[in-house]
Amino acid sequence: MGLANQILELLYDRQGGFFALEELVRATDADHAKVEEALVELTQRGHRFERSPAHGVRLMRPTVMDAHLIERNLSVEHIGRYVLCFNEVDSTNDIAFSSISQAAGQALVVTAEYQRAGRGRLGRKWFSPSGSAVLASVLLHRQASELPHEALTLAAGLSVAEGIEKSTGVTSTLDWPNDVVIGESKLAGVLVEVRGKEVVIGFGINIFSSPPAGKLSRRATCLAKELGGISSLERIEILRTVLGRMDWWVSALRDGLTDELHDLWCSRCGMVNRRIHIQSSGNRFTGRVIDVSPLEGLVVLNDNGQRLYFPAATSTIVK
What is the C-alpha to C-alpha distance for residues 206 and 100, in angstroms, rounded to an integer? Predict the structure, then answer.
């Protein structure tokens, strides 16, 4: 591990506290000049520092997304352990797909501070000011990519909801197939894309701000608002926790635990017994939601008493 990453870990783990320069010198066994060079390198990576003659230096929070901090001791097996961080891209999903040849069989996680052309399901746009959200895409290992698309879609949304709750304490519900919501407001969205034999799970979580009214088809919220205006949330920790849950669910699906996925997803679903209109394969249907199937999609009972199944890939709820 290089000196810059060593210093970054020390400052990050102090959680906004100061580190005297002499303390950094002793902790890293480097001289003052090398420590200063490392701080310059970290500044070039986007990190911000506060200096004090009396107290030393501290890493300003919230921290920018950093591949080393995300990868550090990341305990995953089935999704990417290797992270690429960008300041600005068109789409993290597109970067993940375009990195397949360079990845040499390794699964990747791609993050960005800002997306110029972020998107959700069915080509909808994703709006997020720079540095205000967790924007990430996970390129799955080939074995994981062979899992049922419907189950992956549900597991991805559940992973995001569970990761948010585990890292922040904020409880959310799920709207089929990919919206993480609080009340009637959208907190996060998930997009599972398949190109050939490759699968990418993209997700965006509103952390410090949410799109204004009129930008989306539904109201939106953010974690800072739900936590009373807190501004010190660490996106890195939220992302790491989501990745851990996603890895667990991929493993669970490989072991055939679709019943557990069904039960936990439905425990967060507020749609059961709701009357909806749904568009699927060019046709419009109306009925009452009676279940969500990890393998067959949304289960709706229409007005004629017929049980209909709507897969996420070709269906959308019409407001």
Answer: 27
- Calpha distance 309→150 (Å, rounded): 12
- Phi and psi for 76 in degrees, rounded to 5? -135, 155
Of residues 129 and 274, more confidently modeled: 274
Q: For the chain, which residues make up each domain, given as ranges?
A: 3-59, 67-267, 275-318
Does 275-318 carry CATH code 2.60.40? no
DSSP state letters, 273-309: T-EEEEEETTEEEEEEEEEEETTTEEEEEETTS-EEE
pLDDT for residue 81: 78
Strands 82-89, 108-115: pairing kind: parallel
287-299 confidence digits (pLDDT tens): 999 999 999 999 9
111: nearest Cα among 137, 132, 129: 137
Can you point out the beta strands (E) in 9-65? Answer: 49-52, 56-59
Enclosing H/E stretch for 247 = helix 235-254
> Cβ(169)–Cβ(310) under 8 Å?
no
Give the pLDDT confidence score for residue 263 in this predicted structure: 96
Question: In this structure, are strands 315-318 and 275-280 parallel, antiparallel, or unpaired?
Answer: antiparallel
Cα atoms in the 13 Å half-sphere on the side-chain side of 19: 23
The domain made up of 67-267 has a fold known as: BirA Bifunctional Protein; domain 2 (3.30.930)
Nearest of 273, 278, 268 to residue 288 by alpha carbon? 273
CATH number, domain 3-59? 1.10.10.10
Pairing of strands 49-52, 56-59: antiparallel
Is 216's pLDDT higher than 80? no
Residues with Cβ within 8 Å of residue 316, at least 6 apart in sequence: 121, 122, 278, 279, 280
Cα 232 to its chain centre, rounded Å, is 18
